[in-house]
Amino acid sequence: MSSETVDEVGPRVTPKPPETVQEILKDAPDAAQANMERAEAILGALDENDVPEKYDTEGEWGFAFTGVLAQHPETFKNWWAEEGQVFEGGNLSRGFKELLGAVVAHERGAAICIAWHTTSAAIEDVDADRFAIAADFDARKDELPEDERVAIEFARKSVESPADVTDADVAELRAHGYDDADIVELTTTAGTAAKFANFALTLDI
Predict the structure, then answer these.
(1) 100-133 residue pLDDT tens
(2) DSSP per position, 50-66
(3) What 3 state SS string does 98-129 have?
(4) Is residue 56 a contact partner of residue 191, using CB atoms and an 8 Å limit?
């Protein structure tokens, strides 16, 4: 056996091959299939300098995530559809939700999720300077418009310390123009980003 540890050569769970991933997606919800199309676009735009040394290509890194998740096909279909629906639909812009996702991913240190949200935002033509804020949110959050800063702070709190969310936090969101649907969208976006980041970190993807 090699002296290399598992995390030096790949994820802690063996990924299913890309062909199996595509086969599973054939009867997945439309949102899951659409999200895979976006994933392929993200892989095509990903900066190769972001890829960890243990992966040879951007594609290998990206398919490591879907391949590991595909070890449980029904979960893969449902999670992948959820991610697509949460970030694509709703009242809040995709670019803003990717910024929120990047803040969550940076705080957890999930490299693949940072790359996903940042590259996905670039596809939406979001200003790259805004995404530099996500890497150091607490120090640079005041560079954002106040309504965005308040929303991200609330959403981040919802995944970092949900029991500490107060009625005053919700009232502040409403004072900045967010309605009930927006508040649910913020919370589910942050929760989805945190779930994917936790999955990637736990299994060393």
Answers:
(1) 999 999 999 999 999 999 999 988 888 888 889 9
(2) GS-TT-SSHHHHHHHHH
(3) HHHHHHHHHHHCCHHHHHHHHHHHHHCCCCHH
(4) no
